[in-house]
Design goal:
Distance between the termini of chain A: 17 Å
Radius of gyration of chain A: 19 Å
Number of domains of chain A: 2
Oligomer: homodimer
Largest interface: A-B, 71 and 71 residues
Strand order of the largest sheet of chain A: 8-10-7-11-9-12-13
CATH class of the largest domain in chain A: Alpha Beta
CATH architecture of the largest domain in chain A: Alpha-Beta Complex
Structural class of chain A: alpha+beta
Chain lengths: 333, 333
């Protein structure tokens, strides 16, 4: 057995260097970036969802699972500031293709249509035990505006695009059999939706990238503590997050109280938020806030700042605690 | 449960039409073909290999499994006459990343290097029960020379790039525990190699496409009877294959005799040959044969002809038997 770190090092070791003129950015960002022509780059990303690990059919309606399978990949394109163009779908089914696959495809293609993305290739193969969905997305982005994880600078503001922890809370509600609240008009509805049917922030990502004001960007899929640590590592900087600035959707507190869960745990360590995490000069704070509100109807939130050094620290009054990588681990679930 | 046919229709129904200027060819060929610029197209293909269905670690050394995972996808690029450029790898491991993953990566990247293809993105995720390997390849091809399945014309010769059935025989040898012959210098070595370490015919595919003499092309992954039926259906034609012309590697007969298997079954219905299947005008027979020999060191074999109508027929003396789609079915194994 080798660790996740060793594993990533191994993949990097065998992956392309920058020798090739057409490889702009390889392993280590939300998408691979290839040169298309002098002005444009191609974006490539792939994600695998495994039944029982990344989704559970006991509570995930096939239509929403189809939507989510597209959305989580679109989120990677959003994180680079790109525009999705085309998509490949590959699914392994252990016992033949179930009839609900029609609903899955309807949801999947619905989201692709919303973002003007074409399904250009699809395949089903025989699985053994588990249903496994793999989606590959291709997109485009102006070479001049593409946002990487690696551009954060000391003094930058750290931003998130909206409330954190909703996906984790929604998962917990589903696990407890409370997902039906999704169909009723309760306050918990948005939490369950965040898990079952997350929204990829493609428009916001493109607006932020086009502004030229964003230094570094990624999406939050493994929790803020882990993903901000990734961003910091790629940028060679550290970060301080102020606990009092973390955006929390009010019903999340109700859900935490009802389920005996810890709000801060969900907010810092919950996976699958699919919010955008980005940095900018402090001087651009108001400009960026206005841009996001006007062009993408989003209220973005500054939660801290980039500092010299390394590590991600949570600050509260006089406390300053290292929370780097304390998040969702794909191998612990 | 829905049939494989219904499933493909479903995927097609939701997939992109030709409306989009940039989609040259979607579902239904070895790769999706997207417009890159006025002269060139992008090729996209993805394939999923499931442990226990598409490979068995009991006899598949990790190094060769890595090689094969790259090769089967490169074969799809070869089938369009393309040049592979970049690759994404996604693997699900149920119990953390095993130490043999290093050997897998060495084999995988070895084959990519042979074909000047860069690994630009890679990811491991937690699986539940099975190891699942998904590879996505991107390639390029001149718009003027790309080969589709759909161009076959009545009167065309039907060609294959080499002996058939070796992959199926190799699998059977492995299942019977005879794979060690791979390491000794026996006649069976090539059969086991055909299963464990198939060669993607990228160079031959490019030579054939560039010649401008090939009307339709695909690779043989599900057996001749099934894949030729696909090619005929896409072209709106039928085919007659002459049994006496089918190329058989001599040791295949020995293996069939030893294992009590049927040679013709392996040749017509065996999956995973990864030979190229293509058609050309009969008048170009010698030109094409010479080209393949000189520029790719391959002895290509004409096995029959394209006819009006539909169906794939095996002809022997006065017999003419419909063998359409009698091959490897991904859902029957």
């Amino acid at each position: 057995m080798i660790s996740e770190r060793q594993c990533i090092d191994l993949i990097r070791q065998f992956s392309g260097s920058r020798d090739k003129e057409f490889l702009v950015r390889g392993i280590g960002d939300d998408c691979a970036v290839l040169k298309k022509d002098d002005a444009d780059c191609l974006l490539l990303t792939t994600d695998t969802l495994v039944e029982g690990v990344h989704f559970d059919l006991a509570w995930h309606p096939p239509h929403l699972l189809g939507r989510k399978s597209a959305a989580v990949n679109l989120s990677d394109i959003a994180a680079m500031g790109g525009r999705p163009t085309a998509c490949l779908l590959s699914i392994a089914f252990p016992d033949g293709v179930p009839s609900w696959f029609a609903e899955f495809m309807a949801g999947f293609s619905e989201v692709l249509r919303e973002f003007d993305t074409l399904l250009v290739g699809g395949d089903t193969v025989r699985g053994r035990n588990d249903i496994v969905v793999t989606v590959t997305l291709i997109g485009e982005v102006k070479k001049a505006t593409v946002c990487y994880r690696s551009g954060a600078q000391p003094g930058d503001l750290v931003w998130v695009s909206g409330p954190l922890g909703n996906g984790a809370a929604g998962l917990e509600l589903c696990r407890k059999g409370l997902q039906k609240s999704y169909e009723t008009a309760t306050d918990l509805q948005q939490l369950v939706k965040a898990h079952l049917d997350p929204e990829p922030l493609v428009r916001l990502g493109a607006v932020l990238a086009a502004s030229g004001l964003v230094h570094a960007m990624m999406d939050i899929s493994d929790g803020l503590a882990t993903d901000l640590a990734h961003l910091c590592k790629e940028s060679g900087v550290g970060a301080e997050v102020r606990q009092d600035l973390l955006p929390v959707y009010e019903p999340l507190r109700l859900a935490a109280a009802a389920l005996g869960a810890n709000v801060l745990d969900w907010v810092l360590r919950g996976g699958e938020d699919y919010q955008l995490l980005f940095t900018s000069k402090a001087a651009d704070e108001n400009k960026l806030r206005r841009l996001a509100a006007e062009q993408s109807d989003r209220k973005i939130v500054a939660i801290g700042k980039i500092v010299e050094g390394q590590g991600v620290f949570l600050c509260r009054e006089n406390e300053r605690r290292d929370i780097s990588y304390q998040g969702f681990d794909h191998f612990r679930g």
